[in-house]
Amino acid sequence: MRKIVIAAAVVLAVAGAAPRAEEPKRPWTDTAEFSLVSTSGNTKTTTFSFGNKYIYAWQKADLTVNALALYSDSTKFNDATNQEETETTAETYGLDAKYRHDITDRFLWYGLGSWYQNKPSGIKSRTRGGVGVGYKFVNTDVHKLFGELGADYTDETQVGPPEDSASFAGARGYLGYEGKLSETAKCNLELEILENLDETSDYRANFLGSLTASLTSKLALKASYRVAYDNEPAVGTRGTPPTLYEFDKTDTIFSVSLVVNF
Question: Number of structural domains, the chain?
Fold first, then answer.
């Protein structure tokens, strides 16, 4: 019996000392962002934002899916009606997906699709799909710089009134940068230019800059700044009698979020 116990102990010791095979790296990552601000008392406001980025990578291709939701309201006392009134000051929702496939180490092609809504800016629905090519100018562990050029098709409905719809072909240019500042910090910069080929004065630009600092392997803090520019914004009516007016050309969003890495 003693020999059996000794033999079992030796087997367990050898097994414990044997090198363990590394777990295979999973092909996907998922990152969620949350932000909530609420005030009460003399000023009542609520601001909520959510973002999610899912990436699935193959050997020579990747699929990225982004989701965005932002809502903000403000409650004020109206002296004319003698009661509190709540106004929606921001309401943005978006969903997009992009598939990229490497042709060479630096050259690639892509396909994308997106849906966007921003009623306070006059956009009831904007659906877009497109294809194009890209090039990786710099692709190291510390710095990544890449560009894309392609064509797309947009179907858009504006809030109005009167409600207006339009469909048009467009051109797209994109430049993105990812930089590793330290072992726990990184920055991202993105610039997208969209041109309406049916009416060249109707062009749009989207910019996103962010700085992320890791707290743990699963949690991080992220500060981001978004700019959305539309050279020919939506047109609506307001007042009595109704008069035409243009929505603002530029929307900006600054947020600080808690990031969860799954």
Answer: 1
pLDDT of amino acid 148: 97
Which of 121, 63, 68 has the alpha carbon at shortest distance from 95? 68
In the beta sheet, which residues pair with residue 10?
none
Say if 7 falls within a structural domain: no
Closest by CA position to 45, among listed 69, 78, 76, 84: 76
Question: Does some domain include residue 86?
Answer: yes
Average pLDDT, integer, range 189-209: 95
Task: Give the residue carrying structure tokens 């009542």.
Answer: 44
Q: Over the stretch 14-65, which tens digit does the pLDDT of each residue have? A: 344 444 445 567 899 999 999 988 887 777 888 989 999 999 999 999 999 9
Alpha-carbon dihedral 183, 64, 219, 257, rounded to 10 degrees: 110
Which residues constitute the domain of residue 107? 28-261
CATH of the domain at 56: 2.40.160.40
Residue 8 Cα distances to 2, 16, 20, angstroms:
10, 12, 20
The answer to whether residue 164 sits within a structural domain is: yes
Q: What tokens does 86 get?
A: 């709540």
Q: Cα dihedral sign for 70, 224, 153, 156?
A: positive
